[in-house]
Every structure is written in C-alpha cells, then in structure tokens.
Design goal:
By secondary structure, the chain is an alpha+beta fold. The protein contains 2 helices and 3 strands. The chain is elongated. It has a domain of about 50 residues. Strand 1 and strand 2 form a beta hairpin.
C-alpha cells in the first residue's frame, strides 16, 4: 500500500512539474504555415494575412499553409447580435 501511495505522489509531482505549452495559433491572422523537419524545427507560424503571402514564405521550405482555426474575424456584431444596418420591421 505504501508503494502505491508513493508512486501516486511521484507521478502527480511529475505531471505538475511539466511546463505548459504556449498557444500555437495566433488568433490575429487567418493563415498559418506549418514548418516540418529537424533542421528548421517543427513549428506553426500564424503570421500571414493571405495564402499567397504564406505560399511565398513557404517556397523552398518543408512547409504547408493552413487556415487558422482560431482566427478571430474582424467583423463584429453590434448590440444583441444584429449587424449595424439591421432594421426591425
């Protein structure tokens, strides 16, 4: 029983001590570039405003351009969820 308790405490300490990872996707940009490989490091760069911009930067690299699933659209709804030009009849 003591061994099980000690193992649980050690496992809990290891889980808590693992550093948290940063957010991968920047919600400010609609397009991300996923770079593959060990030489450049595997990473996700969400700094592109268009696929053309991303494709130009990815040219010659082991990378692909993706739609950012966490992109926050610039269009915001006003008030109670209606567009600003909504007219109630």
């Amino acid at each position: 029983m003591r061994v099980l308790t000690a193992a649980t405490v050690v496992l809990g300490a290891l889980v808590v001590s693992v550093p948290a990872s940063a957010q991968t996707y920047d919600p400010s940009y609609p397009v991300c570039m996923h770079v593959y490989g060990e030489q450049l490091g595997e990473r996700m760069d969400c700094i592109f405003s268009s696929f053309d911009h991303c494709a130009g930067s990815a040219r010659g690299l082991p990378a692909t351009c993706l739609i950012n699933p966490y992109y926050v659209h610039a269009k915001k709804l006003h008030g109670r969820g209606r567009p600003p030009n909504y007219i109630r009849q």
